[in-house]
Design brief:
It catalyses: glyoxylate + L-alanine = glycine + pyruvate. The structure is a single chain. With about 475 residues, the protein is of the alpha+beta class. The chain contains 15 helices and 22 strands. α3 runs antiparallel to α11, α4 runs parallel beside α11 and α12 runs parallel beside α14. The chain is globular and about 65 Å long.
């Protein structure tokens, strides 16, 4: 039996996540017989990056506390390495603050990637969870349950939709929307014609990681390892109305998928003219217009639904992230014309729409849909955006500060990861987006102006790291 020893050193990820990946590896011992590995043992922590070609900083660049190190070691032993995590282990939260296992406090402007709209430990939300947990958690969709029907009714009453389908995530919601669009085209196709089966998606789009939703996601590096994905998707430039209208009019498009505000893609907002042109072309040809509001919906823009700002309405809308306050849920909102094409057995889910999760979502939707709550999001978003322009706008590396409500992007001419890392070291959590050059800010919608002022100050103080990043890049 032969043994192979591999030693991995620290490197920093330069992909869009821009964070180090921690493997529990200093010496990886692989005992092999022929080509088949029979034993793998990992001994102590250093770090390595999933991205090939990343520049390696000094091996002592990250100092881990004892508890943090122990958790990272265990994670590397027992979990598949799909996540490029930051080197902190979060233990509890309160409001817009998070605390790690070492006791350090962070101001959370990630909100679980735009999920924790009500922050952490909201009393009304916890009360709703506790009350429902005592009654009924799960029954499957073989039976009816009250919270599911109540949530569907409330979603219909506060949106364009006539019907709702529940899923467990944003990508599941988009998968369902793909199927519903295909079924609708088959249902409405007459005179023996072939139904439209193709889709349009746009540059900088992100719709999920399962094979159908992945096929609609523009970033090639996400799709390439898993090809062939679902065929029949054409990517057009986000905002290019003429190209979209020309393609829709060819009559082969089942549905157009578009985010009114792109999150992962870099915080880009559509124009009213662009969405209107898509709406009109779909109406002319029978194609469906699908708005993906998984990240930008449910109050984050200052409107309950981001598309309300444009006065343009879809045939289908997908939701997920903030809807159940951190519990897994997805939802597809449909017009009656689409819902009428769906029959028993066309789609389904064991866990989706459980009493426990839908009761949680009812609590969130009740809060977020109130006009004064939405007005506060708009007010705080405008306040924060202006504050960022004052404090950051003069920096030579800041190209643009954009967004609406509390979904804001800081577009840089250098990778954003050094700034994100420096903010984290100073107790502020923010994300990256786009091609790794955008700082994405999606705080809990309950955040105060005082907390936003603190965040702006930390970002301002961290700006000098960008000069070093520019120097290293050049």
């Amino acid at each position: 039996m032969n043994a192979v020893h591999i030693c991995l050193n620290y490197s920093t990820c330069q992909s869009s996540c821009n964070v180090p990946v921690f493997f529990n590896i200093d010496r990886l011992s692989i005992s092999a017989r022929g080509k088949r590995a029979t034993r793998i043992s990992c001994q102590r922590v250093v770090t390595a990056c999933l991205n090939v070609g990343a520049e390696a900083p000094p091996t002592n660049a990250v100092k881990l506390g004892k508890k943090t190190k122990e958790v990272i070691e265990s994670e590397a032993k027992f979990l598949v390495g799909t996540y490029a995590r930051v080197p902190i282990v979060l233990e509890r939260g309160e409001g817009c603050k998070l605390y790690d296992v070492e006791g350090k406090e962070y101001l959370d402007l990630n909100s679980g990637i735009a999920v924790n709209a009500l922050g952490h430990g909201d009393a009304d939300f916890l009360k709703a969870l506790n009350e429902q947990a005592k009654m009924l958690i799960h029954v499957s969709n073989v039976c009816y349950s009250l919270p599911q029907v109540k949530l569907a009714e409330k979603l219909v009453n506060c949106s364009f939709a006539d019907c709702v389908f529940f899923a467990n995530s944003g990508t599941e919601a988009n998968e369902a929307a793909i199927k519903f669009a295909r079924k609708f085209q088959r249902h409405t196709c007459a005179d023996g014609k072939e139904p439209a089966t193709e889709f349009i998606a746009f540059s900088n789009s992100f719709h999920g990681r399962t094979l159908g939703a992945l096929a609609l996601t523009s970033k090639e590096k996400y799709r390439a390892p898993f090809e062939p994905v679902m065929p029949g998707v054409t990517f057009l430039e986000y905002g290019n109305s003429q190209a979209a209208v020309d393609l829709i009019r060819q009559g082969k498009i089942a549905a157009v998928f578009v985010e009114p505000i792109q999150g992962e893609g870099g915080i880009y907002s559509a124009t009213k003219e662009f969405l209107e042109s898509l709406r009109n072309a779909c109406d002319e040809t029978g194609a469906l217009l699908v708005f993906d509001e998984v990240q930008c919906g449910l109050g984050r823009s200052g409107y309950l639904w981001a598309h309300e700002a444009y006065d343009v309405f879809p045939d289908i809308m997908t939701l997920a992230k903030p809807l159940a306050g951190g519990l897994p849920i997805g939802a597809v909102l449909l017009s009656q014309k689409v819902a009428s094409a769906i029959n028993h057995g066309d789609h389904g889910s064991t866990f989706a729409g459980s009493p426990f999760v839908t009761a949680a979502a009812l609590s969130v939707l009740d809060r977020v849909s109130k006009p004064d709550f939405l007005a506060s999001v708009s007010k705080k978003g405008s306040f924060f955006k202006e504050l960022l322009k004052q404090k950051l706008g003069g920096n030579r590396h800041v190209r643009e500060i954009r967004g609406v409500g509390l979904i804001i992007g800081i577009d840089l001419d250098v990778p954003a990861s050094p700034l994100v890392d420096a903010c984290r070291d100073s107790g502020l959590l923010v994300l990256t987006a786009g091609k790794g050059n955008v700082v994405r800010i999606v705080p809990p919608l309950i955040i105060s102006e005082q907390e936003l002022e603190l965040a702006a100050d930390i970002l301002h103080r961290a700006l000098p790291v960008l000069d070093e990043a520019k120097h290293n890049q050049g």
